[in-house]
Amino acid sequence: MKKLSTLLFLAAIALVGCKDNDPVQTVDWYKANAPERAAMRAKCKDNPGELAASPNCINANRAETAVDGAKRGGLNVQPLQGVKLGGNR
């Protein structure tokens, strides 16, 4: 039992070393840093199975969408406030 515990402990330590150490950047950061945004999007496109759901890929893609929308004069849609739905019953 002690050997199994030691083996599991060593396996856990080995797996911790495999973690990706890239810092997570925000959408606003990617909006302001176009070269890094393009590099991250290319990296995500090259390995979508592992990286597509990573925070950096999601944030870089959202930033690209926002920048593209702003270039095309996209709408700045705000949520409705103070509107009652359903009418009178």
Could you describe the 3D structure shown?
With 89 residues, the protein is mainly α. The chain has a domain at 22-71. The protein is 62% helix and 0% strand. Helix 3 (34-46) packs across helix 5 (55-71). The longest helix is centred in the C-terminal third of the chain and has 17 residues, at 55-71. It is flat and about 70 Å long.
Spell out the key features of this protein.
mainly alpha
* Beta-strand percent range: under 5%
What is the residue-averaged pLDDT?
81
Q: Helix- and strand-based class?
A: mainly alpha
Terminal CA distance: 69 Å
Weakly predicted, low-confidence segments: none
Compute the CA-based radius of gyration: 22 Å
- For this structure, the quaternary state is single chain
H/I helix tally: 5
From N to C, what is the helix and strand string?
A: HHHHH
User: What is the β-strand count?
Assistant: 0
Largest sheet report: none
**Per the principal axes of the C-alpha atoms, what is the gross shape?**
flat
Helix content: 55-70%
List strands and helices in order, with pairings.
Elements: H1 2-16, H2 27-32, H3 34-46, H4 48-51, H5 55-71
Helix pairs in contact: 3-5
